[in-house]
Amino acid sequence: MKKMLLTLSLTILTVMAAVAQDVTGKWKTIDDETGEAKSIVEIYKQDGKVYGKVVEILDPKKRDLTCVECSGSDKNKPILGLVIIKGLQKDGEEYNDGTITDPNNGKVYKCYIELDGPNKLNVRGYIGFSLLGRTQTWQRVK
Predict the structure, then answer these.
(1) How many whole angstroms from its chain centre is CA 131?
(2) Where does the UniProt annotation place the signal sequence (predicted)?
(3) Is the pLDDT of residue 107 over 70?
(4) Contact criterion met (CB below 8 Å) for 38 and 29
(5) What is the C-alpha end-to-end distance of the chain, expressed in Å?
(6) Fold of 23-140
(7) DSSP string, the chain
């Protein structure tokens, strides 16, 4: 009986650790230049790919801004509710082969994301090679 309880407990802990290591959920974006929190992005899975949508803007003065510099169907859309991460696919420990839009300037970059522990997410946007870009570390919202 003790052996069965121990096995069950270990199985539950393993499942809980795997769930905690998932990229889905809400993340506080941190500006890599100023260190300030800017928004909350909800990362979710759809059709086997990963997407991220702005669900909260932390600066009240910026809550009604639109993505004037965006192109295509995102042009002039409100930043609140904008899907900024599109089409990432799991590849080992990271998610890549998708894009991220910077709503401040409308530019679209190649993107990959990778967990750095259960509560930190490294988000890298780049042009061409991943060496030509910048990384932000987002914090999980509990």
Answers:
(1) 19
(2) 1-20
(3) yes
(4) yes
(5) 36
(6) Lipocalin (2.40.128)
(7) -HHHHHHHHHHHHHHHHHHHT-S-EEEEEE-TTT--EEEEEEEEEETTEEEEEEEEESSGGGTT-B-TT--GGGTT-BSTT-EEEEEEEEETTEEEEEEEE-TTT--EEEEEEEESSTTEEEEEEESSSTTSEEEEEEEE--
